[in-house]
Amino acid sequence: MKTALARGVRYYATGDVLSVQRTGSTITYLKNGSVFYTSTVASTGDLHVDTSLNTTGATLNDIVIKGDNLTAGATDFTAANALAKIEAYNNGDGTTPAALTVDDYTAAGVTGVTATNLAAVNANVLAAATGDADTTAEIQTLAFPPLIITLDDTALAAGETATVTFTFNEAVTGFDNSDITVEGGTLSAVTSADNGITWTATFTPTAAISDSH
């Protein structure tokens, strides 16, 4: 840690998150989730934790020690622990604990999370109500909601229309306007241009309708 800090973290501020990770035999050092140094010395033995701070009165808070992908018989990183971390992230502010990783979701039994969609999945989990990320099934649904409905304009003026988009987490067939309840206007026929993942329609509000919500 001392060598790595000398190479990269000369300055740090309140709220910075410093971490050390070993993947295989490679040690990497991170500040706020970004790698600033990768050791060229292979690491295969036990890991020991020690630290020193250069500034009088400085402190370390919310320290987390965990092991991913441990060998058979190891017990400190289990699905239960992964679920607990995800739940803590859902209940927290997105920085404590630090952003979840693909390995966290995999260990918890959640499928489909990749480096490409990780940020979006984390945002969904963080935005969910407290207590809604306690089980693998809940997290799977948070990560990939079955259906997301969005409008491109939520403050329509007289004579305006809005495009309504229905985004499913997998391709669906047979989806049509009979599956939709519309209030305060009319909706054109829904159509899909990507084999059933995304469907769009045009919403036309009823004249003189106002909604204070």
Summarize the helices and strands and which ones pair or pack:
Layout lengths: L1 H6 L10 E6 L2 E6 L2 E5 L40 H13 L10 H6 L10 H10 L8 H8 L3 E5 L10 E7 L16 E3 L3 E2 L5 E8 L8
Antiparallel strand pairs: 1-2, 2-3, 4-5, 5-8, 6-8, 7-8
Describe this structure in words.
With 213 residues, the chain is α+β, with helices and mostly antiparallel strands. Helices cover 20% and strands 20% of the residues. The strands form two sheets. Strands 4, 5, 6, 7 and 8 form a five-stranded antiparallel sheet that branches. The radius of gyration is 24 Å and the shape is elongated. The chain starts with a helix and ends in an 8-residue tail after the last strand.
State the end-to-end CA separation.
Answer: 53 Å
Query: What is the approximate shape?
Result: elongated
Please report which band the strand proportion falls in: under 5%, 5-15%, 15-25%, 25-35%, 35-45% or over 45%: 15-25%
What is the helix/strand order? Answer: HEEEHHHHEEEEE
Category from helices, strands and their pairing: alpha+beta
Per DSSP E runs of 2 or more residues, the count of β-strands stands at 8
Instruction: Report the helical percentage.
Output: 10-25%
Rg, Å, rounded? 24 Å
The number of helical segments is 5
Mean pLDDT: 79
The main pleated sheet reads as: 5 strands, antiparallel
The low-pLDDT segments are 1-6, 69-77
Offer a concise description of the structure.
With 213 residues, the protein is α+β, with helices and mostly antiparallel strands.
Give the tags:
213 residues, single chain, elongated, alpha+beta, disordered N terminus, 5 helices, three-stranded antiparallel beta sheet
